């Protein structure tokens, strides 16, 4: 196998692996439990809160936020409507339960 063929083969494997991972994530997002888990995970990462504290805690907070941003990008790549649906469901639960 030539180096060019080897590189092409590696890229094809990576594309397939990424496709398989997104498919698995879609499967999880189709369940209520999966959506609830990812909603709690994203909330824990504090995506929409400031991470600045004025001390080294900022670095820790930015690390959590970075993971949250990555998870969110994976969710959107797997199912572009999933996050919006999760927000709607959370809002409905909040209005129902206070």
Give a nutshell description of this structure.
With 98 residues, the chain is mainly alpha-helical. 80% of the residues lie in helices and 0% in strands. The chain contains four helices and no strands.
Descriptive notes:
With 98 residues, this protein is mainly alpha-helical. The chain has helices at residues 3-29, 32-44, 57-78, 82-97. Helix 1 packs across helix 3 and helix 2 (32-44) runs antiparallel to helix 3. The longest helix is centred in the N-terminal third of the chain and has 27 residues, at 3-29. The chain is flat, with a radius of gyration of 18 Å. The chain starts with a helix and ends with a helix.
What order do the helices and strands come in, and which of them pair?
Elements (H helix, E strand, L loop, with lengths): L2 H27 L2 H13 L12 H22 L3 H16 L1
Helix pairs in contact: 1-3, 2-3
């Amino acid at each position: 196998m030539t180096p060019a063929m080897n590189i092409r083969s590696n890229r094809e494997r990576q594309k397939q692996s990424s496709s398989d991972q997104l498919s698995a994530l879609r499967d999880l997002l189709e369940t209520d439990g999966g959506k609830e888990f990812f909603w709690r995970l994203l909330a824990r990462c504090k995506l929409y809160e400031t991470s600045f504290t004025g001390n080294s805690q900022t670095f820790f907070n930015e690390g959590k936020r970075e993971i949250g941003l990555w998870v969110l990008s994976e969710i959107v790549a797997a199912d572009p409507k999933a996050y919006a649906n999760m927000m709607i469901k959370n809002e409905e639960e909040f209005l129902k339960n206070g």
